[in-house]
Amino acid sequence: MIGPNLIPVGIAGLGSYSPKRILTNWDLEQIVETSDEWIFQRTGIRERRIAEDGEDSGKMGAVAALRALEDAKLSSDRIDLILCATTTPDKPFPTTACHIQNAIGAKNAGGFDINSACSGFVFAFNTAAQFIATGMAKRVLVVGTEKLSTILNYEDRNTCILFGDGAGAMVLSPLDEAGRGEYLGGSIQTEGGKDDVLEVPAGGSTLPTDKRVLEAGLNKMVMGGNRVYRFAVSTFVKLVRQAVEPYGFEQLGRIVPHQVNQRIIESALEKLDLPPETAFSNIHKFGNTSAASVPMAFDEAYREDCLIKGKLACSVAFGAGLSWGHFLVRW
User: Residue 287, by phi and psi: left (phi above 0), alpha (psi -120 to 50) or beta?
Assistant: First the structure.
């Protein structure tokens, strides 16, 4: 909850973008040993979107950003700060936030990227809220955008079936201007030393990309089996309880979680003794889009009128690092 002498924060606008190309489970059957039934039973995914060549994270993020600005009824020159959550930036530098700034004409905005994998947007949202609450910025554009298809090994059925591309965005501003989505607080947490749970081993200063790295496929994502599942379920439950219990679960309108895996979401809801419809899910058509999944799901929930006025909406996320966090708003 925002403390005394701090400016209340709200969500002024939402937007999202998904590429046109659809990669179905049947399509994956043609390139890796799997089946539609095997994928759906384990993940709840039927299809995911794949960005075209030249359709990078920055370009997708810019489309989502413009849609969020339109929803907020704001011109881009009124944005003070752009935070871009991505684990697939356009390039090592300059930042993807800079590319988005230029693409949308946000000439008065500063910006930077936040890379915390699937937790990235939640971390960026909480960071943006602090800028507004303290008066350092008045309007902050928060973007989650990913082109995960560029770091997937399409011979590894454990990872390539899960992930897709896309982007989502929110505009945060003082609550008296936004008029909805009152920020009540959140969390940012990490536990290092767990690289083997989920990582891209190469491409940074530890193991720069060279011929050997490319031949070994070390520039692609690898995942440590069902350890992700166990971590995600327990963390989902802990975060929702931490966020909602002070207000009472009767105040909860919707959970809009990171779209990690439908079976994880269902298992967590069962442990929380909540009905399945409590959580908004669109993983069946977009897969796991990492830092883009929360804003994409939140935007769709908003446009489908699934967020309940006056009730709590809680977003939780968890990912590589390990990293996890949440934010809570009253819609």
Answer: left
What Cα–Cα distance (Å) separates residue 64 from each residue in 57, 90, 170, 202, 231? 11, 16, 9, 29, 30
Place of tokens 């909406």: 313
Q: Is 249 exposed, middle or buried (0-12, 13-18, 19+ CB in 10 A)?
A: middle
175 and 195 housed in the same domain: no
Predicted confidence (pLDDT) per residue in 33-68, tens digit: 999 999 999 999 999 999 999 999 999 999 999 999
Considering only the C-alpha atoms of the chain, give the largest distance between any 2 of them, rounded to a whole number of Å. Answer: 59
d(CA 13, CA 251): 23
**pLDDT by residue (tens digit) across 268-309?**
999 999 999 999 999 999 999 999 999 999 999 999 999 999
Question: Residue 109 is part of which domain span?
Answer: 9-179
The CATH number of the domain holding residue 100 is 3.40.47.10
Catalytic residues: 118, 258, 288
241 is written with which tokens?
């309880």
Looking at beta carbons, which pairs linking 201-210 to residues 24 or more positions away fall under 8 Å? Answer: none
